[in-house]
Structure formats: structure tokens, C-alpha cells
Amino acid sequence: MRNYLMILPIALLVTYSQLIVKWRSSAVEQLASASFLQHLIKFITDPVILSAYTAALVASFAWLYVVTKLPLTVAFPVYIGVTFAMVLLGGWFFLSETLSTTKLVAVLLIFSGIVIGVTADA
């Protein structure tokens, strides 16, 4: 069980990265007439977006460690499922995105699958 908990910080870092990129990309949308290069420069020079990419990079290196401790066929679905749920809730809480019953049922089904997959591996 302890090894599965190692996935949580990775999912948190990736969730942070995704939410920040979505949030900050709204600022770039204000440059509607700007060229692709101007958009790219805006992203590259934004310290908040850089922190998001740094978080994703750290998560990638941490993932290398996790896959040495867990079977990939179990670790990856757990990681994706937890990240999906966290991004869904973070998008609702921080970005005011819609949270429908269908999305909540989907998260419950994903977590049910994770529980089945993890207990079947034990």
C-alpha cells in the first residue's frame, strides 16, 4: 500500500501543472491578434507557467522511481485515475468548470476499477 501512496505526489504535481497551464493560457488568449511566436514568448517568460512545467518535470523523474517499485500495469492506471479525478475537481474548484453528475459517476467508476485492480494484484 505504501508504494501506491508514492503515486499521490506525482498526481498532485501533474494536476498543478495542468491547472496552471489552463489558467495562465487565458491570459494569452487576450493577445488574439498576436502571432504564434508572440504567444510562445509570452508562455516561456511567464514564471507561473515555468513553475507548472518544472512541476511536470519533477513528476516525470519521480515516476521513474515509482515504476521501479510497482508493476506498470497497476501503477499507470492508478496514476491516470487519480490525476483525472484531481484535475476534474481542481478545474471545478479553481477554474469554475462544470462538474456534472456524469463526471462524478465516471470518477466513481474509475476509483472502483482502481480498487479492483489494486486488490487483484495484491
Which characteristics define this entry?
122 residues; mainly alpha; 85% helix; flat
Detailed description of the structure:
It is built from six helices and no strands. It has 122 residues and is an all-alpha fold. It has one domain. The protein is flat. The relative contact order is 0.15.
Binned, the helix content reads over 70%
As residue ranges, the low-confidence spans are none
Terminal CA distance reads: 9 Å
Major sheet, described briefly?
A: none
How is the secondary structure organized here?
Blueprint: H1 2-5, H2 7-29, H3 36-44, H4 47-69, H5 72-95, H6 101-121
Helix pairs in contact: 2-4, 2-5, 5-6
Concise structural overview:
The protein is mainly α and 122 residues long. The chain is built from 6 helices and no strands. It has one domain (2-121).
